[in-house]
Amino acid sequence: QEQLVESGGGLVQPGGSLRLSCVVSAFPLKYYAIAWFRQTPRKEREGVSSIIGSDGREYYADSVKGRFNISRDIDKNTVYLHMNSLKPEDTGVYYCALGSPDVVPLIGPYDYWGQGTRVTVSS
What we know:
With 123 residues, the protein is mainly β. Helices cover 0% and strands 48% of the residues. It has strands spanning 4-7, 10-12, 18-24, 33-39, 46-52, 57-60, 68-73, 78-83, 92-99, 112-113, 117-121. Strands 2, 4, 5, 6, 9, 10 and 11 form a seven-stranded mixed sheet that branches. A four-stranded antiparallel sheet has the order 1-3-8-7, with no helix packed on it. A hairpin with a 6-residue loop joins strand 4 and strand 5. It is globular and about 40 Å long. The protein starts with a strand and ends with a strand.
């Protein structure tokens, strides 16, 4: 049974927006860390954003600060990544990952991973 399922990827023009979703099963979000990572053609896997613990502390990579926003719906046990002002270099496969609340936010270790959703930013 898949425990993290991502959706929302697709093709978008530069400057556009997308919202990614990660539905989490079996793990109440407020007790864990959830992060979004991406695998791009130019870089190794990169931590993009995370939201951690009962107080929902948020963390962002410098490359996405001011453009991306992470949020969660506790009732739906779902985490979202709102991506705005998208650039071609944001192209890649985006994964959500779950770990204990004491992880290093954009590094890990994260124990459970989704299958990924592809984002392509191109005109």
